[in-house]
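STRUCTURE REQUEST FORM
Protein name: Metal ABC transporter permease
Source organism: Brachybacterium vulturis
Requested output: structure tokens
Priority: standard
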Amino acid sequence: MNPLDLILEPLQYEFMVRALAATVAAAIVCALLSCWLVLVGWSLMGDAVSHAVLPGVVLSYIVGVPFAVGAIVFGMLAVALIGTIRGTSRIKEDAAIGIVFTTLFALGLVLISVTPSHTDLGHILFGNVLGVSSSDLIQIGVLAGIAFVALLLKRRDLTLYAFDPTHAQAIGLSPRRLGALLLGLLAVTAVVALQIVGVVLVVAMLIVPGATAHLLTDRFGRMLLIAPTISVLASVTGIFLSYWVDASSGGLIVLVQGALFTLVYLLAPRYGILPRLLTARRRRSRGAGGEGARPDEPTGGGEPTGGGEPAGAAGGTGALGTDGAAGRAGTAEARGGTQIPATPRL
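Status: completed
Returned output:
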């Protein structure tokens, strides 16, 4: 069998074509959203919301309304409960997130166990991308399209909110509304992805692509291109692997994403572990030989400033070549994308 047959043979089956279409749509929108989630530091919140939507999805199935309705309601409910617990007690945010998402996830499991169904609601937990029907594909396409357009239209506001919500408020934007928009898109995107990999693994599609792209670039504009590319590559590879090795499609998609992240973590030119170790070894060798470090080499723990701009532009915060203020996000993107601070502020 030649390599071309490895690609063409699975495409003879209609269910494989539908699975690939659904996976690509979910991979693109999840990867785009993951850039903001990683930037804002909402990885744990993404995990919480993706699990907390489970009872909403089951209740939507019971009453016969689109899954997205229940998912958004319970996603917002989870956020409200987390904020209430954090704001009215001595419980910290990470503990509040753990309490709320596990409780709502358990409620979803109970509802699944007591709900008589002609369909296997267990597929919500672990995904069933090879069983995507035409109507499922339409729903995934519509929800992914809504999330994609919303992210595209509000990208500047959301980027400004991620970098500096105080400045966003000063120029007339509402950080509260932008945060709510991001959470709403998170709930919608979770519904898109849970058909592919299930509720248990959906957080991987919402976090891993953005985290991988974050290790490859300091420019947010480039990150928005790299993350979907990586996600689509991993997802398509996972689908084909699942056909040939007869294993879980969702599990293989996430495994491939994890493998790509590991490669980037080790080999990324600027922030990879191995290049930084080699740079440090060369510096020590020159020091032992009585030679000083060359002025054109990066200093400070092997983490040079991004984009070749001076570290002072970070305003003394230790940022990786931030553009100085999110208010210049539009101008920075015009030059090739907003630069990403090492520790984005909420």
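Reviewer notes: Confidence is low (pLDDT under 50) at residues 295-336, 342-346. The chain has one domain: 12-276.
Form closed.
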